[in-house]
Amino acid sequence: MISRCYNINTPRYQAYGGKNVTVCSDWHNFTTFYKEVQELDGWIDEVHHSWCKELDKDSKQGWSGDKVYSKETCIWRDKEENNEDQGHQISVTCVNTGEVFRNLARASKWGGGSYCSIHKCAKGIYNTSGRHPITNERLKWKFKES
Questions:
Q1: How confident is the model at residue 27 (pLDDT cuts 50, 70, 90)?
Q2: Is there a contact between 105 and 88 (Cβ–Cβ < 8 Å)?
Q3: What's the half-sphere exposure (Cβ side, CA atoms, 13 Å) at 115?
Q4: How open is the CA angle 143-10-34, to the nearest 5 degrees?
Q5: In the predicted model, what is the mean pLDDT of the chain?
Q6: How many helices and strands, by DSSP H and E, does the chain display?
Q7: Neighbours of 105 (CB within 10 A)
Q8: Helices 115-122 and 104-111, interaxial angle, to 10°?
Q9: How many other C-beta atoms are found inside a 10 Å radius of the C-beta of residue 56?
Q10: pTM (2 decimals)?
């Protein structure tokens, strides 16, 4: 999180620090950060150890303007829910059906593959990801053409 916001050499810097996303000064101390994030809405000990939750800075602050990661502005959300709401708007097309999904989270919900595996399939790293909800056919994906 700190690297994305402050290190210009980090791959995701442009989406965070490059858009004036910051981290409150208290959270620059890991001990303070770890104590406070456990007090945020959505924290459940056993769930966080499985990495299926993400820290969301947008729900309380809206989706435009400068953002800050802090105990006042963040909550924990399911990864898919968080990605669907934010801006992970990588549109993909299901090759099998021709259906277009406006983001990976919606494609994942429909076809059952993780949004990570659908992305890798669209990049050509994986052959298929998920299965058709009715026919059970393995699904192939490609990035939506502009």
A1: very high
A2: yes
A3: 21
A4: 105
A5: 86
A6: 6, 7
A7: 24
A8: 110
A9: 24
A10: 0.59
Q: Which two tokens stand for residue 21?
A: 């996303």
From the number of C-beta atoms within 10 Å of its C-beta (0-12, 13-18, 19+), residue 13 rates as middle
Question: Domain-by-domain residue ranges, the chain?
Answer: 2-81, 92-143
- Of 118, 113, 1, residue with least CA distance to 56: 1
For residue 70, the model assigns a pLDDT of 95
What distance in Å separates the CA atoms of residue 101 and residue 34, rounded to the nearest whole number?
Answer: 36
Q: Which of 80, 88, 84, 145 is nearest to 113 (CA)?
A: 80
Q: Average the pLDDT over each of 30-34, 43-47, 83-87, 114-118 and give the range with the smallest value.
A: 83-87
Residue linked to tokens 């490609």: 142
SS3 140: coil
pLDDT tens by residue, 109-136: 899 998 788 988 999 999 999 999 999 9
